[in-house]
Design brief:
The protein is α+β, with helices and mostly antiparallel strands and 395 residues long. The chain folds into 2 domains: 264 residues, Beta-lactamase (3-Layer(aba) Sandwich), CATH 3.40.710; 113 residues, no CATH class. This is Serine hydrolase. One of its GO terms (molecular function) is hydrolase activity. Keywords: Hydrolase.
Length: 395
């Protein structure tokens, strides 16, 4: 990779800070396991004048999902669960969940499930669960009415959240469509029940400890290290602090969200990504078998279709065209349709505050970008970051 071309990353995203679009960022690029570019710029908290540093903590939000998916596959490798297992085996509340057919949220027409929600449905976001913040469907409205838009109702732990979601209708029949929602949170609860350990303890013992990810968890060890969260005001178009959402990560939550609850450093997440790129192993610590990782990053959508062909046109952390979905990751099927010069088989995901990562297994490149601005779709940071990384490949 050409160092001068990699420096274009810094010049480009420096402008994002200098003109006020972002407060700060951290970018990390590696090839064949070696970091070739790691740069920080800007402030983690403008009001206090605190700079972005290597130990800055970031709210990972949905970049928690790949970690929870790996946790489930650890149990799968041990024979403690099957991808085809109905989740009602561990969560009886999902045994008779109804499915939305038509009508308003105040009087929806519901039908029985054709088949049960299975572990595979949770991993692939085809279970029929949703998010209240979509604001696009009557079932989203029902979630908001139950207190689920961003976060959970006060005092509700993960088990209580799962039972609440089970009492609401599914948006569609399990396996019929792809819809981004609380599936990975439910998966986290399955991990807890099957393993007999709270999710934070499972993560620490099975993933964070072995990989040396000592700055990642559901709360920061030092609030001063946590980057402040900002939001784009839709009225003024200006960036403003979002301290309501930003409270996440400051203290241990009541509900351990496997779908979006972790905070951590860029260095820690780099180690997690290097484990994936290394076929499940890093520095002698094997988390998954190489065949398991290979299986997870294949497209699991029925018929090999992309998200545009199988998903609802709602918010997600990746574009839909030319991209499929595996067990916890987006998977590039057609770089031409994706409109990005990456490789077939690139797998990735991101978080609502602008964090993202991707792995190009053909070029043996990994890349991570961290900032704290919601929504992540405010600017084309992810596509531009890909362009800037790929143009630096010169061999």
């Amino acid at each position: 990779m050409d160092a001068d071309r990699l420096a274009r990353i810094d010049r480009h995203f420096t402008r994002y800070v200098d003109d006020g679009r972002l407060s700060g960022w951290h970018a990390v690029v590696a090839r064949r396991g070696r970091v070739v570019h790691s740069t920080t710029y800007g402030l983690r908290d403008e009001s206090k004048g605190l700079p972005i540093t290597a130990d800055t903590r970031w709210r990972l939000y949905s970049m928690t999902k790949p970690i929870t998916s790996v946790a489930a596959m650890i149990l799968w490798e041990r024979g403690e669960l099957e991808l085809t297992d109905p989740i009602s085996r561990w969560i009886p509340a999902f045994a008779d969940t109804r499915v939305y057919v038509k009508g308003p949220a105040t009087d929806p027409v519901l039908a029985p499930q054709v088949e049960p929600i299975r572990v595979w449905h949770l991993l692939t976001h085809t279970a029929g669960l949703t998010y209240g913040f979509h604001h696009a469907h009557p079932v989203d409205e029902l979630y908001r009415g139950a207190g689920f838009e961003f976060g959970a109702p006060r005092g509700l732990d993960l088990a209580g959240c799962v039972d609440a979601w089970a009492s609401l209708p599914l948006m569609h029949q399990p396996g019929a469509e792809w819809n981004y929602g609380h599936a990975t949170d439910v998966l986290g609860r399955v991990v807890e029940i099957v393993s007999g350990r709270p999710l934070d303890r499972f993560f620490e013992a099975e993933i964070f400890g072995p990989l040396g990810m000592d700055a990642t968890g559901f709360a920061v060890d030092d609030p001063e290290r946590l980057a402040r969260l900002y939001a784009l005001d839709p009225t003024s178009g200006r960036r403003v602090p979002n301290d309501a959402m930003g409270r996440a990560g400051l203290k241990p939550p009541t509900a351990l969200s496997g779908g979006g609850g972790l905070v951590g450093t860029a260095g820690d997440y780099h180690r997690f990504v290097q484990m994936l790129a290394g076929g499940g192993e890093l520095d002698g610590a094997r988390i998954l078998g190489s065949r398991t990782v290979s299986y997870m990053v294949r497209n699991h959508l029925p018929g090999g279709v992309d998200l545009e062909g199988f998903g609802r046109p709602l918010f997600a952390e990746m574009p839909y065209r030319g991209v499929g979905f595996g067990l916890g990751f987006s998977v590039v099927l057609d770089p031409v349709a994706f409109r990005t010069g990456t490789s077939v088989g690139e797998y990735a995901w991101g978080g609502v505050a602008g964090t993202s990562f991707w792995v190009d297994p053909v070029e043996q490149v990994t890349a991570l970008f961290f900032t704290q601005l919601v929504p992540s779709s405010a600017y084309p940071i992810r596509t531009q970051f890909r362009q800037l990384v790929h143009q630096a490949l010169v061999d």
